[in-house]
């Protein structure tokens, strides 16, 4: 049996054969004859360390394209360019997750007589993400980065209201060199593409950010199909509680309970969707505007007399995403941090303030699962397998 006329000596990366990035090769010598059999391409550090390096490269490209991404969001969803910090925040998420893959570890146990046991943490395979319109770059990073670094392939559906930045990210994914098929980004409406992903038998886990109504539909679709794991970051209606000892100037500014605007509402002579700022005072606790989330410049201001009263009112909602308490009394602050039924509690701060080293997610109808901090977000895209090894 002779050797083939041509021996393949290149590296196989991204579904194709390529030479090493630094051009180096090493010799393969027949030990019986000492003859040179082939010169094989030597994988460089860049060739080898691709999983994290793709994500690092993408983070760099996102930063480089900040201005274009800002313009795309301004044109598709009306967000002022001056308020756009999402590219750098998104890039930081990609960087953090690129370094987090090695933190995934199993456990071992020797408490069962005659056995050595262990757990494996393994990717689902194919997972999906569905993101909203309001901060698409951040939500895209929250879905893609943790899923990819632990070994999944991802189908991501962007919002039909703001798809342009996601489409731009797709071009940067290509520039970064991700293998074909590892990331799929689609644009469509929820009742078609979102429904298909939710029902799809090959999708083993799905992460969604959006309304509680849609989250319930996705969970129902998962139950009717393959019982895929579903992680939800949904609506919120949590309050900002301001006590008499708070720094009122800072509290009312951050909590948006006092609003100053230029007279006239919408700029004169301009087209567009403008909603005048609206303040409701002493709103009945059972009113719809006190119970349901409003995406707009609308605020309810009510008063309270005691801690017990306001804590009960604060928790009298089906939502629990982000609550705040303003006080200089640290004991009171900690009592409310424990007592407020919300996934995040801000003390002397409020949304959208978050911590890069903290998970984010909701209580009750505000969702399930946590995103943001890799220690928590990686869990959304990993299955745990128990392995029992009999040794006697």
UniProtKB/TrEMBL annotation:
EC number: 1.2.1.3
GO MF, any single term: aldehyde dehydrogenase (NAD+) activity
Catalytic activity: an aldehyde + NAD(+) + H2O = a carboxylate + NADH + 2 H(+)
Protein family according to the UniProt entry: Belongs to the aldehyde dehydrogenase family.
Native organism: Alternaria panax
Lineage: Eukaryota, Fungi, Dikarya, Ascomycota, Pezizomycotina
Name assigned to this protein: aldehyde dehydrogenase (NAD(+))
Aldehyde dehydrogenase domain: residues covered: 53-261
Pfam families according to UniProt: Aldedh (PF00171)
Active-site annotation: 233
């Amino acid at each position: 049996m002779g050797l083939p006329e041509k021996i393949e000596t290149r590296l196989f990366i991204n579904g194709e054969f390529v030479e090493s990035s630094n051009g180096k090769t090493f010799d393969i010598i027949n030990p019986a004859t000492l003859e040179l059999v082939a010169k094989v391409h030597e994988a460089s550090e860049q060739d080898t360390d691709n999983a994290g390096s793709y994500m690092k490269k993408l983070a760099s490209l996102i930063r480089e394209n900040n201005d274009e991404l800002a313009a795309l969001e301004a044109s598709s969803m009306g967000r002022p360019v001056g308020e756009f910090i999402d590219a750098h925040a998104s890039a930081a998420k990609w960087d953090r997750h690129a370094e987090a893959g090695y933190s995934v570890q199993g456990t071992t146990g020797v408490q069962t007589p005659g056995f050595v046991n262990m757990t494996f943490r393994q990717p689902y395979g194919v997972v999906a993400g569905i993101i909203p319109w309001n901060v698409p770059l951040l939500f895209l990073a929250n879905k893609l980065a943790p899923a990819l670094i632990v070994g999944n392939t991802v189908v991501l559906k962007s919002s039909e209201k703001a798809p342009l930045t996601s489409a731009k990210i797709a071009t940067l994914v290509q520039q970064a060199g991700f293998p074909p098929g590892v990331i799929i980004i689609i644009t469509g409406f929820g009742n078609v593409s979102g429904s298909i992903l939710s029902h799809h038998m090959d999708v083993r886990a799905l992460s969604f950010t959006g309304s509680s109504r849609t989250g319930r539909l996705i969970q129902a679709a998962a139950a009717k199909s393959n019982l895929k794991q579903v992680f939800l970051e949904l609506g919120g209606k949590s309050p900002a509680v301001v006590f008499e000892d708070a720094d009122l100037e800072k509290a009312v500014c951050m909590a948006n309970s006092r609003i100053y605007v230029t007279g006239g509402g919408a700029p004169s002579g301009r087209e567009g969707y403008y909603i005048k700022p609206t303040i409701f005072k002493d709103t009945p606790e059972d009113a719809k505007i006190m119970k349901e989330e409003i995406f707009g410049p609308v605020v309810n201001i009510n008063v309270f007399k005691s801690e017990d009263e306001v804590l009960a009112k604060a928790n009298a909602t089906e939502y629990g995403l982000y609550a705040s308490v303003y006080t200089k009394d640290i004991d009171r602050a900690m009592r409310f941090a424990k007592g407020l039924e919300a996934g995040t509690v801000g003390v002397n701060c409020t949304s959208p303030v978050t911590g890069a080293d903290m998970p984010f997610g909701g209580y009750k109808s505000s969702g399930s699962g946590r995103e943001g901090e890799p220690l928590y977000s990686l869990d959304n895209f990993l299955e745990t397998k128990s392995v029992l090894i009999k040794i006697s």
